[in-house]
């Protein structure tokens, strides 16, 4: 496991005013070491050692999101994925066949401002979701 990024789950929890529980700690650790956003199912698997069930994991993630510790996104039809809010803003490309996810490490400059310019009813844009869908190389090889 890479030790380079010093995101300490204990500090994150404390800063956000959360009690330090094994599940919360394990979730933040999993998210801080992940290279892509993780689905609830993937997270349940990663914190298996804490014996937390899906409902518990889900509740913890919702509480984290309410405190802006994590952000959720819908990358595939049936799955919500989570990533740490501290992670640099980026977008993702998702394989429509196998749901593989890769980070696209750039954003479109001024995209929010441009959206606002064309809007009649909005005063501010605070965030945006941008999804890229495609076929991964693996699937491109096997699907015809
Ligand atoms: Zn694929
Ligand atoms: Zn962006």
Give an account of the 3D structure.
It is a single chain. The protein is an alpha+beta fold and 144 residues long. Helices cover 37% and strands 19% of the residues. The radius of gyration is 17 Å and the shape is globular. One zinc ion binds at residues 89, 91, 107, 128, 130.
Average pLDDT across residues? 87
Share in β-strands: 15-25%
Order of helices and strands: HHEHHEEEEHEH
Number of helical runs? Answer: 6
Helix content: 25-40%
- Low-pLDDT segments: none
**What integer value in Å does the Rg equal?**
17 Å
Strand neighbour order, sheet with most strands: 1-3-2
For the largest beta-sheet, the strand count, sense and barrel status come to: 3 strands, antiparallel
Backbone structural class = alpha+beta
Q: Label the overall shape.
A: globular
The count of strands amounts to 6
Which kinds of small molecule does this entry bind, naming each only once?
zinc ion
Q: First CA to last CA: what distance?
A: 37 Å
Give me a quick take on this structure.
With 144 residues, the protein is α+β, with helices and mostly antiparallel strands.
Key terms:
three-stranded antiparallel beta sheet, 6 helices, three-stranded mixed beta sheet, alpha+beta, binds zinc ion, 6 strands
């Amino acid at each position: 496991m890479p030790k380079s990024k010093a995101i300490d789950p204990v500090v994150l929890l404390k800063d956000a005013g959360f009690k330090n529980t094994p599940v919360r700690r394990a979730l933040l650790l999993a998210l801080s070491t992940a290279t892509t956003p993780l689905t609830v199912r993937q997270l349940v698997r990663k914190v298996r050692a804490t014996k937390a069930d899906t409902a518990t994991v889900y509740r913890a993630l919702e509480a984290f999101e309410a405190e802006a510790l994590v952000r959720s996104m819908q990358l595939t039809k049936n799955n919500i994925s989570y990533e740490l809010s501290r992670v640099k803003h980026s977008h993702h490309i998702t394989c429509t066949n196998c749901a593989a996810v890769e980070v696209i490490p750039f954003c479109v400059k001024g995209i929010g401002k441009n959206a606002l310019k064309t809007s009649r009813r909005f005063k501010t844009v605070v965030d945006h979701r941008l999804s890229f869908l495609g076929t991964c190389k693996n699937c491109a090889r096997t699907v015809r």
